[in-house]
Amino acid sequence: MSDVKAVRYLLANNAAMIAVVPAARIYAGIVPQGTALPAIAVTHVSTNRRRIVAGSLVKFCTSRVQVTVMASTYPAQKSTLKLVRDALPETRGTINGVNVDSIANESDGPDFRDDAAGIFMGSTDFMVMFIE
């Protein structure tokens, strides 16, 4: 979960982001039902682990992390997704205790909406490379 830990930390500590989505509504995992909007879910998709040196306990990991924005309007969804991308520029270093080689925006997902709940959703994926 180091990948999610680093991404959530960067989002929850970005001034422009938390001016729109309070840190308490940026979740590692799913957004609980009934949460006020906008809200953000940071979820793990997959990880590939490689040993740096044969027999070493240190592993170089490449993970895909999905960041899903939930908002009450389509324009709010799109503008919040832009804030997410802006909050996670090509980044490296120790982030919330995670030794991150890089975080890079990979791709944007499709738009969804739940008419009954009045929620507009969209996602963007990041590749997080880190040492485990």
- Number of helices, counting only DSSP H or I runs of 4 residues or more: 3
Count of DSSP E strands?
A: 6
Main beta-sheet annotation: 6 strands, mixed
CATH architecture descriptor name: 2-Layer Sandwich
Classify the helix fraction into a percent range. Answer: 10-25%
What's the structural domain tally?
Answer: 1
**Mean pLDDT, nearest integer?**
93
Q: Poorly predicted ranges (pLDDT <50, ≥5 residues)?
A: none
**Oligomeric organization of the protein chains:** single chain
Give the overall silhouette.
elongated
Query: What string gives the helices and strands in order?
Result: HHEEEHEEE
Calculate the terminal CA-CA distance, rounded to whole Å: 10 Å
Radius of gyration: 15 Å
Q: Structural class of the helices, strands and pairings?
A: alpha+beta
> Proportion of β residues?
over 45%
Please identify the top-level CATH class: Alpha Beta
Strand order of the largest sheet: 1-2-3-6-5-4
What is the name of the CATH topology?
STM4215-like
